[in-house]
Amino acid sequence: MSATRPDYRQRGFSIVSAIFLLVVLSALGAFMLTFSNVQQMTSAQDVQGSRAYQAARAGIEWGAYQILQNSGSCAGSATVPLGGNLASFTVVVNCSNSSTTEAGNPVNMFQLTATATTGTVGSTTYIERQVQATIEH
C-alpha cells in the first residue's frame, strides 16, 4: 500500500494569488478610467481656450472698427455680442485714449483690451482669455 497523500499545506495559495491579481487589475482599470476622463476634460478646455481667444480677437476687431471707421473715438467699456460658436462667451472691450505730438503732428493712441469669458469662476468650465492692442489714429 502506498500512502500518496496530497500535500494540503499549499491549498489555497492559488486563490490568494488570483484575488491579488484581480485587485491589482481592478486598480489599474480604475486608474486608466480616471486618466482618460482627465485627458478628455483637458482637451475640452483647450478647445474652449481657443474659442475664447478667437472671441477676444473679435472684440479687438470690433473696437478697432469703432475707432477707425465709426467715430474715431473710444467708448470706455462695452460688451460685444457675438454669434455662432462664440455666442456663449461674454466679451468686454475696454478702451483708453491718449494724445501725443510727434514731429509737430497730433497723434491719438488708443489702448484696447478685450476679455472673453465663459463659465463660472472657480469651476472647471471657467475659461478666460485677454487680448490687448494699440491703435494709432
Tell me the Rg in angstroms: 31 Å
- Give the helix proportion (percent range): 40-55%
- Major β-sheet strand ordering: 1-2-3-4
**Main sheet record:** 4 strands, antiparallel
Number of separate helices:
1
**Helix vs. strand class:** alpha+beta
Q: Which residues sit in consecutive blocks of at least 5 with pLDDT less than 50?
A: none
Number of domains: 1
Report the span from N to C terminus. 113 Å
Give the strand content.
Answer: 25-35%
Q: Kindly state the number of beta strands.
A: 4
Order of helices and strands: HEEEE
Global outline: rod-shaped
Mean pLDDT: 89
Organism: Sulfuriferula nivalis
Keywords: Membrane, Transmembrane, Transmembrane helix
Protein name: MSHA biogenesis protein MshP
Transmembrane segments: 12-35
How would you sum up this structure, described in words?
By secondary structure, this protein is an alpha+beta fold. The protein has one domain. The chain contains one helix and four strands, in the order H-E-E-E-E. A four-stranded antiparallel β-sheet has the order 1-2-3-4. A hairpin with a 2-residue loop joins strand 2 (90-102) and strand 3 (105-118). The radius of gyration is 31 Å and the shape is rod-shaped. The mean pLDDT is 89.
